[in-house]
Amino acid sequence: MHNKLRFPAFPLLIIITVMLLSGCGLFGGELQMGDSASPLPPGPAYAVCSEACLNQGQCGEAKPVGQDAFVAVLANSSGPATQTHTNLTAANSEVTILESRPETMQLVADPNSLFTLQFYNVTITARDNAVVWIPGWCIANQTIE
Question: What residue segments make up the domains of the chain, in order of their start?
């Protein structure tokens, strides 16, 4: 007769699964904005009306004729832009990042102030997968309130 210590496999499997899912950010995870030092990778993300996005005039309340008002994030279909937008989507809309591109920007109020801003080429799931560019201020790895 052998005495073997048997540990139930099922509880161990649950513990490992929860740890893996937590590490992948599926239980909230840390908020990462698209304008951080490290660009967000291609894949799922959200168009968000963050404080920086709002302060730069890239999102706000929209009220299309005959529709209810909603918070919108501005986008451009022809390339990276922070003005003359051609598209919009509701804040916290799911998008898929196709690529990111850093662009050198200049403040209108101060022609000597140059800075780099990450732009994201994304498809907007709720808009029949429209392909647009959104500034990093307005892209995140999760929704925000």
Answer: 31-140
